[in-house]
TrEMBL record, chain A:
Pfam families: Spore_permease (PF03845). This is GerAB/ArcD/ProY family transporter. One of its GO terms (cellular component) is membrane. It is found in: Membrane.
UniProtKB/TrEMBL annotation, chain B:
One of its GO terms (cellular component) is membrane. Keywords: Germination, Lipoprotein, Membrane, Palmitate, Signal. It is a lipid-anchor. Residues 203-354 form the Spore germination GerAC-like C-terminal domain. It is found in: Membrane. Pfam families: Spore_GerAC, Spore_GerAC_N. This is Ger(X)C family spore germination protein. Gene3D superfamilies: Nutrient germinant receptor protein C, domain 3. Belongs to the GerABKC lipoprotein family. InterPro entries: GerAC_N (IPR057336), Spore_GerAC-like (IPR008844), Spore_GerAC-like_C (IPR046953), Spore_GerAC_C_sf (IPR038501).
Amino acid sequence: MDKSMQVIAVYLLSHIGLIFFMYPTDIIESLSVGHWCAILLGFACHVAVIAIYTKGLSYFKSQSIIDIFAGAGKALAWILLLPVSLYFLMMLILTVRAYAEIVTIIFLDSTPLWAVMALFLAVAGLISFMGVEAMFRTGLLAAILFFPLLLFVLSVSFQNADWHYLYPIMDKRSASFSFVLERPYLLSFFAFAGGFLFLGFIPPYVPYKRRAVLWTTPVLLPFFFVSVYVPLLTFGRNTAVQFQFPFIMAVDTADISWLMFDRVTMFFMITVICFALLFISLVMWKTTLMIRRVLPFVRPDLASLLLAAVVFVICLQIPNWKMVERLFWWNTYLRLYVVAVIPLTTLVLGIRRRRKGAAGI
Amino acid sequence: MNAKLPVRIALKSMTMAGMLIVLCGCWDIRDINHRALPIAMGLENKEGIYRIHLLIPQNTQSSSSVRIVSDKGSTINEIIDRISKDLELEVDLMHLKVIVFDRTFAERGLGDSVSSFMRSRDIASKTIAAISDESIGSLFQTLKSTSTTGGLEIYNFFEKNAGWSPQLAQTRIWQIFQSLHSFTKDVAVPIIKSGESTTMTSTGSAVIKNGKMVGRITPEETLLFNAFNGLSAQGKIEVMNHAAVVIDTDRLSHHSSVKGGRAVLNSRINLKVTVLETKGSPTTAMVKQELEQLLTQNFERMFARLQAEGADILGVGQFFRNRIPRDRLANWRTDYYPRMKLNLTFHTVIEDEGLLKMKP
């Protein structure tokens, strides 16, 4: 049965959950003029990588990426998948720690960090433990419940926009793409690269159409633009660069007298954190899948419980936000590897398999 | 297997109960009746010592009254903490609506305190800012003694859907913060004092440049300032020798250019007005001509003064973002703004003359 709708929903939600916090900070920091160049470049990479990845997957009929790599040789599977699982583990730790910090900074200032992290891990662990089908159904439900709210907040966030801040359109630095290899821009890639790998893990469980996912990618582009341009248009680059979370600040300035709630930011935060929870549970599920491939005797519930415990303990060891930022930077190397190597290898393996198949006939 | 079942159920329910305790999110919660929710904060600074006044509405079922709490110290947070400690309630600034700064404090610069408001998570960045022309103590006393709605007057005075009028600037904390860092934007902050027959009256607006008050404009000039910002001067009365009119709509168009290193902005403000009152029997042509003349004159006078002060509260620098490269725009306030030329033309249309006829 085709479940493209659910896959599309999870694809959108898990990316939207990642976009609105650190991504605008990094992009605004990396350029002073012409941020659209940076956004478009990143997005083009994102679409290209997904196209390559799903093309490669399409050669294998409903096989997960673990099976594909294992089929090509045990050594290759180890070399390719060990960094991926390490990357997932890092991603889990960072997302849980960073989002807990964001929650305490923005609204739960008297709740201790560990309680927020425990909540995240408990909910995400439960969802991932329920299995991938349940997760994807939850994704669709979350999309139906929260998307209208999200769209409302996003349209309201333009309240204080001053469109003159669009100018100047570009300068030498943005036109020459000299910012590409600099640290803030490389950091921004986590918003593009964090979520898409799940497309290779689900084919045996949740079948989907490749074209449906590819056609959905442009839907994400406005979200990337809104997250960067709303703070830029509201505050101007010079002021926006001062903020830890520029988009949240920009939403905070919106004043709606007819709404009975004082801060629309709350709606936004809760929506986005729901999406982030879904993303965390997705990554947890992928990681347990790999753990159980290596250690088949571990029961699935025990595996996710152990993973959650490990992540929780490591999260507790991260003392401050500076450390989170440093870990984000270290993780960039792994991320670039995952983004570049995994889709390309999948494609190469796929083409090789087709040639073999053709030769066999 | 069956013998294990009760144990498993017990274990599961214990885990669930434990989660309920740990994860319910009710951490250090204070009930709403144990919180003081100030509506306005007054901030003075004398020789580095802050003095904070909080205006706290106290509503019970039968009556509403106002309470003023004040204290001094070297940082804002220290004072709030001390007030919380001394008060039987916890001070919660989440719903603070107005922050009133002392005038001498504003003249020395609001940069640090505005930055700390932006940094702190418990004061909303959209809190309205105002400057007091008299001492904050006496302003708050008047607010307290004349209040009938539990201190809400000061909030309603500024609120767009309540008592706000176009002669009053409306500026929020984040806009002052923006002016600290922006190349081209300054702000006008309303100046208030206690009125004679009303609770409060506005005596114009303070011109704030980089967080410092450098001058002031009158309420009439504030109306022009609002009209220029398209914050439509709707329903406002302009008194002249022969007539009073109300402005229905204003529409603006701008064209910017740089000629020989000098910034030139051609602006046109289209006003649609309705006649309210006449003295004698002026013709509509006379009213129109007089109105345009008066507005142009007032505007030019105000703009010349603002240029001398180097404060771009009208945000005209914004129109040059696509004309002047960014590195040179950084010096907008010193290199371009004082020498810039603003050609402003008012174009008025008298939409109707009310219910009485007038000579054309």
